[in-house]
Amino acid sequence: MKTKSKSPAPSTAADGRLQAQAAFRASEIRYRRLFETAHDGVLLVDPVTRKIVDANPFMMKLLGYTRRQLLGRELFEIGLLEDEVASQEMFEKLKRKHEVRYEDLPLESRRGLHKEVEVVANLYEEDGHHIIQCNIRDITARKKIEQDLAEKARLLDLSHDAIIVRDIAGRIRYWNVGAEQLYGWSRKEALGKSSLRLLGTRFSVPLKQMLKELYRTNRWMGELSHVKRNGQRITLLARKTLDRDRQGRPTAVLETLTDITERKAAAEAQTRIKVLAATNEELKMEIAQRKAVEAALRKSERHYGLLLAESERLQEQLRQLSRQILLAQEDERKRISRELHDVIAQTLTGINVRLAALKKEASFNSKHLDRDIARTQRLVEKSVNIVHEFARELRPAVLDDLGLIPALHSFVKLFSKRTRVHVSLRAFAGVEEMDIAKRTVLFRVAQEALTNVSRHAHAGQVEIDIRKVPGGVGMKIKDDGKSFSVERQLTKGSKRLGLLGMRERVEMVGGVFSIESAPGKGTAVLVEIPSASKIKMQ
Question: Alpha carbon 122 to chain centroid distance?
Answer without folding.
Answer: 82
